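Many introductory courses stop at the sequence. We go one step further.
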Amino acid sequence: MKVNTDTLVSITEANQNFSKVARLVDENGSAVILKNNIPRYLIVDFSRAEEEKTANDDDVMNISKRLIDKNREAYEVLAK
């Protein structure tokens, strides 16, 4: 996932000014809340939540192919 650095907010700022976080989500679709300067929480527009939850078919096929190639020997032994 790519993170827009303009949407990074410290947890202290999010706590004190949640309307700013909501505005960032409205404008950019998401915001990342940092805790100790480390990305900790992701706030996503509710309408995009379903999109973020599911992987597209191409991603699943690429991952499957990579796993099969990496573990071909084990799969051939199991197939016997």
